[in-house]
Amino acid sequence: MVKNKKEISTLTKAEMEIMNTLWDAAGPMSTHAIIEKYPEPKPAYSTVATFMKILTNKEFVSFQKGNEGDKTFYFYPLITRVEYTRKFMNQVKSTFFGGSVKSLISFFAKEEKLSDEDLKEILSFIKS
How many domains does the chain have? Predict the structure, then answer.
């Protein structure tokens, strides 16, 4: 797992796309397999390879080499989507809302202009 840091590195949009692909995968993926998951126009191999190096350095992913004779690297996540989301949202809560869940929820309730039905659904989640 990612090192115990108070704050987690955040993912860029491009890094998040790759992480979502890895999180959705059944197992480790090669750079070519990751590219195959992209819609057209697909990114260049070198672009994805650079992002894989960045994600490895940030300790979001690791890799394993293929079987004997296979020089391919197969990447896999070191953090789950839920773990990343939890840590990211805790940073948002701390940075923008003074650590207050109430303030965070209040902000989104007001800014998103939630319907009465949405609010009832959220309340039922909270109560359960």
Answer: 2
Which residue segment(s) compose the domain that 73 sits in? 13-80
- The mean per-residue pLDDT over the stretch 83-91 comes to 94
Q: What is the mean pLDDT of residues 76-87?
A: 96
| pLDDT score of 128 more than 60 | yes
What is the pLDDT averaged over residues 83-97?
Answer: 94
Same domain for 58 and 88, yes or no, is no
Whether 6 maps to a domain, the answer reads: no
Separation in Å, CA 24 to CA 34, 40, 43, 107: 11, 19, 19, 30
